[in-house]
Amino acid sequence: xxxxxxxxxxxxxxxxxxxxxxxxxxxxxxxxxxxxxxxxxxxxxxxxxxxxxxxxxxxxxxxxxxxxxxxxxxxxxxxxxxxxxxxxx
Length: 89
Description:
- This protein is of the alpha+beta class.
- It has two helices and four strands, in the order αββαββ.
- About 10% of the residues are buried.
């Protein structure tokens, strides 16, 4: 899809009911930082074609769900945590 400018590209990218992954190819660090803040996606892949690393936190926005089932962080969904405060004499 051809777009007129960066603003139109950003609008088109966010105009979806899903928000799992976005792929961006750029050498412009200023635009990349803006995309990181303004894209409504759980994952942003920059200058690379493939998916997340196994140790990463896989998360989605909108109708793509909450995610978070990959890597060591995914265990949090299956744990019931407890904190104990002990004074040892």
